[in-house]
Amino acid sequence: MRVALLTVSESAAAGRQADLSGPAMRELVTQAGGTVVRADVASDDREAIAAWLRRVADEDQVDLALTSGGTGLAPTDVTPEATRSVLDREAPGIAEAIRAGGMAHTPRAMLSRAVAGLRGRTLIVNLSGSPKAVAEQWAVLEPVLAHAIETARGEATHPETDSARRR
Q1: Could you read off the pLDDT of 7-52 as tens digits, one per residue?
Q2: Cα separation of the two ends of the chain
Q3: CA distance 11 to 138
Q4: For residue range 103-148, what is the model confidence (pLDDT) as tens digits?
Q5: Cα–Cα dist 98/155, whole Å
Q6: In the β-sheet with 122-127, what is the strand arrangement from edge to edge?
Q7: Taking residues 81-92, what's their average pLDDT?
Q8: 25 neighbors 130 (Cβ within 8 angstroms)
Q9: What is the pLDDT of residue 163?
């Protein structure tokens, strides 16, 4: 699993604050056996986020692009809009499951506007901006990642469908 990471944070992009969620994402991806091929920080700029997503999907052809931050209700939070602008197809169940899982930890999880979907064969998932939220959301996402990526590549098999075709 080849992965690209983007932390969306005005203060981290300006160097006023350390990027904490990027290293948290990197550690989780690495522990799951993935390889981080790119990790960047961007400000809350819709076009910059969209351009980064297009680059990692179209040029780098990563399996998974994770963003962290910019998914809330603040006027500057534009990560979901940037993501939607580059997606070929949404995968709403992923974002819904992440929000539902977050509700076990905090009612504030319902405030997330994060989205997930595909650009080509790259799965793109928005995560929240704190390392704690990243870890909690990864725990929901990680069990389905291998199958999601295989499916996006066209490599997944479905035993019930395959056996029906053989009849």
Answers
A1: 999 899 988 999 999 999 999 999 999 999 999 999 999 999 999 9
A2: 34
A3: 23
A4: 999 999 999 999 999 999 999 999 999 999 999 999 999 999 999 9
A5: 25
A6: 35-42, 2-8, 64-68, 122-127, 116-119, 89-90
A7: 98
A8: no
A9: 45
Which residues does residue 2 pair with via DSSP β-bridges, in sequence order?
Answer: 35
Taking Cα atoms as reference points, which of 20, 4, 14, 113 lies closest to residue 53?
4
Answer left, alpha or beta for residue 68, where phi above 0 means left and psi between -120 and 50 means alpha.
beta
Beta strands in the chain (DSSP E): 2-8, 35-42, 64-68, 89-90, 116-119, 122-127
Beta bridge partners of 116: 125
Beta strands 122-127; 116-119: pairing state: antiparallel
Domains of the chain listed by start with CATH number: 2-166 (3.40.980.10)
pLDDT for residue 80 is more than 90: yes
Burial (CB count <10 Å: 0-12, 13-18, 19+), residue 102: buried
